[in-house]
Amino acid sequence: MDFTQNKLSKSEWENIEVPISEYEKKIVLLIIQGYNDVNIRFNESQSLFSHIKIEKTPEIEYFLYKKYFDEEISTIMKKYGKGLNINFTAQQISGELRTLKSADSIRLQNLDNHIKINKTYIFEFLLLDLCKDMIKHISKSKSRYAFYLYTLIQIKKSSIENINQYVVNFVDSLIEYGNSITKTSEIITNAYDFIEKNPYLLKHEDKMLFTHQKELFTICKNPSPKLILYTAPTGTGKTLSPIGLSENYRIIFVCVARHIGLALAKAAISVEKKVAFAFGCETASDIRLHYFSAINFTKHRKSGGIYKVDNSVGDNVEIMICDVQSYLTAMYYMLAFNPAENIITYWDEPTITMDYESHPLHTIIKQNWMENKIPTMVLSCATLPKEDEIHSVFDDFRCKFDGAEIHTINSYDCKKSIPILNKDGFCVLPHYIFEKYNEMIKCIEYCKENKTLLRYFDLREIVRFIKYICDNNEEEYLIDVKYSIDTYFDSNISNITMNSLKEYYLELLLHMKDGIDKWTDIYKEILHIRKAKYYSIPPLLKTSSVENIKNKIDNGALRRTNSVVIETEKQFKKLTPSGILITTNDAHTLTDGPTIFLAEDVNKIGNFYIQQTNIPPTVFQSILMKITKNSEFIKRIEELEGMIEVKETKTASLGDEKTNAKESGRLCKESQAWMEQINKLRKEIKLVSLDASYIPNTRPHQQCWAPNGEINETSFVSNIGEDVAKTIMELNIENHLKVLLLLGIGMFTDVKCVEYREIMKKLADEQRLFIIIASTDYIYGTNYQFCHGFIGKDLTRMTQQKTLQAMGRIGRNNIQQDYTIRFRDDEMLKQLFCKEDDNLEARNMCLLFNSDF
To answer: From 3.60.10.10, 3.10.150.10, 3.40.50.300, 3.30.300.20, which CATH number describes the 10-15+225-401 domain?
Structure first.
């Protein structure tokens, strides 16, 4: 990724004005309110009282029960509750209640139709539906009842106000009965379906601050100087935390990757926070204020809106967003209007470039640290070195600011599993990696210290291992009684969550009886019985190398290396673990959303997928001919535009102001003729498209490549659109980029064409690309949502911390879908789960965050 510290472009300015979604806005407002009340929470689910917005009284509550819930409960009990020892009867809720006032009665009658239409949005009706499904399955002796029991137990924890107490009594009676007939092991055995794939849990859970945000806000309320190491998983709101801090402090947000700063600006502006920007600044005169921050400005003579802002007056600025190069300029600017103790420097991803022995930004980073005058600094990152690795940084900060405190915030908040797959398509967990028990124990101890790794433990594989141990425990006595399921979870279904199961998995491995003697046999058996996560038809047989395909395309040669499948019935019936052929055999495994492929040589990966797409030579030749012809038109258009520019650009007599006749529309005769030629040439540019059978995961494509031709509706398909495709065809870029776009593949590489890069960013943001192929530095520059990721085998030099950063790009959205991170080199996996001998990021931090020359 390009870390050049430049001023904001026009498109970047325009993009920050686009409001965030209403849901995102609610989250940002929660963070703002959470600064003063860290325990704040809200739930979008509504009780009947909240939905109809009437005052709650005992009379009305009973009336609503009798009118809307009593008959439903009676029907459930009559139909499915016979013979079940459920401690609930209608008489339990009777009592002496006054008659409704006539005004209330009339009002409720008027709301009757509204309530019936909106039943699906009312929480009590959801509870009764779950109760009905639960007792129905119990009456038919089906184990599926446990799903509804677990769901009821968990969603009842939500802070939904004014739930009808009579409905709650009924639900509690069913939960009590369900608990009495359910073993904890039944819930754990089905944990993947009950927890990870449960559509009710995330939808109806409370929205509240993450634990790390609560800690940050609490610590920052202490006015003393402080250095805060703020570590939390990606996608858990770290970047939005400064908006909460701005309720009481002025914030200088420092980012190397400008996309992160602009994402913060967009969110802040959407809630009318006062923002300023310092990108590519040499002096304070380069700082720019957003209109909300302006105090002195000139109004437009006609529209009455702000025309010109006086950027030198920054009293109103709440959040200054700057790049690393501009930090000192931004700092002195903010100090001109605020005392230092009222400012927080919030340094986002300070380890960027720290994985290089040397980097052009290192000198700037060191200077920023040495000259920093802000006594409160937050170093925010998904991966920061441990305290014992950077003691010198703490000592240096204390020397600069008397009485400075050092705080460490570590969080592993996560509500989803993002499985890691090895190069053969098998899930990776510690018990699959280490054959020697003592090596595995070291790994487990490291995971307990770095619980952010738990996010990448596949819950299904954990459940399989737990079940294996418990099934074999009676015969071989593998674990102590205190680590049995019922003892560990205290026979309380409510205690079973995704995190608690993953922690239980670690404890099982750590406390196995005679592990050293028994582990080797266990290891061999679990490897023998494990299954790949995905399967596909036999892979293509490559007949020749792909190394020079880019040159073949761009030089206009119509030759093409081919890959073929030996189409025998026997081979097609035999399934193999899914691999890397994600434009053909393995495309169906990329579900729910886009994929990112991180590699050192992005062009090589792009060319590989062109070659492996199996486009017949005649079709491929036709496409290249059209693209080549379009390129000729584009080249001629650029020549004519250059001629018009030279002909029509004049220097006006007023100072250095330039008048472009082309833009004003006043062209001379010769230029008009050239413009007519341009218009004719533009009409000659043809839209190039591929048949749907070559575009990954379309129905024709899946019928050809998916196992047995079965259609997977969740398999993700690109959506480029004709307008974008035509625009790309009109750009002066290399032909292989155009071919890739037809397949739904975007490249983030050193393309000179700015317009291509902007289009790729837009397509990525809108989730319209099938795959993005990018270098590893790109990981710091995006908050885009990816469901799957590949870590290329040419990234073996990537540090453990940067690997975790790369993994953090996956699964950032707010719903549980199928996610995977697929490593192309298994050696990187062992490094991921073990402590590094030499932490390069820590070494560089100690060197650069130091005031000595």
So the answer is: 3.40.50.300
